[in-house]
Amino acid sequence: MEKFETKIAVVLRDDLAVWQRLNVTAFLVSGIGAARPEVIGEPYEDGDGQRYLREFRQPVMVFEGGKETLASARAKALTRGLDVAVFTADMFATGNDADNRAAVRAVLGADLDLVGIAVYGAKNAVDKALKGAAKHP
What we know:
The structure is a single chain. By secondary structure, the protein is α+β, with helices and mostly antiparallel strands. It has a single domain, classed as 3-Layer(aba) Sandwich (Bit1). It contains 4 helices and 7 strands, in the order βαβββαβαβαβ. Strands 5-6-1-4-7 form a 5-stranded mixed beta sheet, sandwiched between helices. A two-stranded antiparallel ribbon has the order 2-3.
């Protein structure tokens, strides 16, 4: 098994419905893939020669915690210079990317009503930033 020096992690608020957890995770990890193309592997191909899209080349670890855990993880990750993607409760009420960005822009960072964050960077720095978050069951 390959050991990675970097880590991709998602922290979800522990009071989300299952559909929200899945939706938020998908949105958040897309930000990591877009910002860090080096985390994306080569295209897949089956035995028939059918090609499939490229995917992350390393696991995505998923954690959960309360509102305070997410706020703390966001602050620590930013202090450590890690890449961070955010999803706020307000984004559930929007219907498009422009409105999502406007919902985030309308609130000071420390006051964001976070329901999920994704973090990417050096493994030990990510682990320190997420201290207090529990592995998602």
